[in-house]
Specification:
It is built from 4 helices and no strands. It has about 80 residues and is mainly α.
Length: about 80
Amino acid sequence: MGQTALASEKFLFAEKKFNLAASYFEKAYLTSDFGYLKTIANQGLLYTTMGRYSLAEKYTTRALELRESKLGKEHGRCCVL
């Protein structure tokens, strides 16, 4: 639902859904799950789109760290330009 809301420019609703999804993963101790990683990355994208750059950097950096720990720094999906 968060991704659909983001695509529809319903940013506050998307933020609520991404936060809720992240909390579910955290409560279930599933922070190494790819779904959690994707949720954190989506939060970074959301905050970038909203112009909330300090939060965007926080979530995007966290998503990259999670991806690197899961896949390794040399993996193609961990590239930083």
